[in-house]
What does this fold into?
Amino acid sequence: MRNSKQKEIILRALGEHCIHPTADELYNYIHQEYSDIGVATVYRNLNKFAEKGIIRKIIGLDGSSHFDSCLEPHYHFICSCCGKIYDVPINIGKDLIAKAEEFTDCKITSMNMTFRGLCRECEDKHNGKFVFDEAETEMLLTASTS
Amino acid sequence: MRNSKQKEIILRALGEHCIHPTADELYNYIHQEYSDIGVATVYRNLNKFAEKGIIRKIIGLDGSSHFDSCLEPHYHFICSCCGKIYDVPINIGKDLIAKAEEFTDCKITSMNMTFRGLCRECEDKHNGKFVFDEAETEMLLTASTS
DNA sequence: AATGATAATGATAATAATTATCATTTATTG
DNA sequence: CAATAAATGATAATTATTATCATTATCATT
It folds into this structure.
């Protein structure tokens, strides 16, 4: 991978955000200051960085791709109301992966966990009156036992 | 929600599959027998069913939407080689969610876990020589401690 | 069983995010 | 500094999904 001004700009711009922007959002942000950067360059490099493990890619619940410059082990929380993605800096036990390998007879190399609910801000704003009218597509907590 | 012949066909067709098809895949399958069903109807109803909690929607690592007629608590394993989605019928402890709520100060209502790696079939076929050239976008196991 | 209200359907247009193409520019290496 | 090949940017292409809307089917009520 060759160096370029654009790559530096993209990486720096991503580092300035903690909201886990999409490629498009980051492009628009960068484009304000560097109007001559191309959309393809931003998409291309973000994906390349993710492949190389320099950054992380998060697939949102609606299928959109978000990017995260933080490589530290952590998971994500997505607010069902405002859609913002927050970090959840916890680790899970290896025994869970062992159990999953046992059940599936598959070799597991990576895993991903996403929580969903209402963020503090939205809960305050809506005073608990927010109705989950979106698809409840994930495992409901009520169904999970330990 | 009103009843219809199409809804029955779609639900039945989904039940016949354990590969977690996309809306498009299911449409093509159904279309073979019922050539007069529309694409929009399949997309519409699958999403509606997921909203109602009659089926589940899984967002693949590439952002594609897959559907699952099984409502039992379980997670998924996606093969990095062939892309097939397998069920992982395990449960996690509530303490993990409690911990996540504590860290984020958010109210968690649901969670989702996806494992990734090589399925038995692909491992045998490629004899362990498969190279992960795809984006390693999730948390690498090596980074996770218990 | 006929009626009427309205939800569901299907054909197709529209959308939106992302990727491919390719001529031009830029970085790296000897 | 020149040669080589990768990177860029403009734009076309792609692809999955959704919106539109005229038509049809469903279902509660008569």
